[in-house]
Amino acid sequence: MNITLRDVNEADLNQFFQFQQDADAAHMAGFAPTNPRDRSVFDHHWGQLLGDESSLVRTIDVDGVPAGSIAVFQEEDAHEIMFWTDKQFWSQGITTSAVDQFLQEFASRPLRARVVADNGGSLKILTTRGFREVGEEQVFSNARASVVTEKILQLD
User: What residues have CB less than 8 Å from 121, skipping those under 6 apart?
Assistant: First the structure.
């Protein structure tokens, strides 16, 4: 299996929009737009992310197939990393490899991440790469239609 990171292209965005439709994945992530089927909201979000010069956005590619995305963007006083891997690629080490590659490409620190407290997979990936918990917030999750605990992690 060849896992690489590459620039995002138009076809990737179509795939990312489809990934967003998976209710199990949205629940796990905890974060989703109010209406995940609204393509205009999706396009607006991705247009802002891709158009921001302070952001770094990559497609996670597995043997020529887009498996997800990984990005960093400026949030308050630090950069924040986020990633999404399609459910069919879970538990195969793909996200772990993508995060490792991304952390080599993006070396600015501190780097933060926000993860719903019960998302054990993402928490494990981040903590084994040196992210440590620096805070916790109660936030509303559209995907869960409830308040969730969000762990705030930081890599120094």
Answer: 28, 90, 91, 95
> Looking at 63-125, which runs of residues are DSSP E strands?
65-75, 78-85, 111-116
d(CA 71, CA 13): 14
The predicted pLDDT at position 35 comes to 76
Amino acid (one-letter) located at 72: V
- Report which secondary-structure segment, H or E, holds 143: none
Q: Are 119 and 28 in contact (CB under 8 A)?
A: yes
Q: Is the pLDDT of residue 105 over 90?
A: yes
Please, what's the b/e burial string for 71-101 (b: 16 or more CB within 10 A of its CB; e: otherwise)? bbeeeeeebbbbbbbbeebeeeebbbbbbeb
- Looking at 2-154, list the stretches that DSSP marks H as alpha helix, in order from N- to C-terminal side: 10-20, 23-29, 39-51, 94-105, 120-127
84 to 62, 137, 156: CA distances (angstroms): 14, 21, 22
Cα gap 121→110, rounded to integer Å: 22
Query: Mean pLDDT of all residues in the chain?
Result: 94
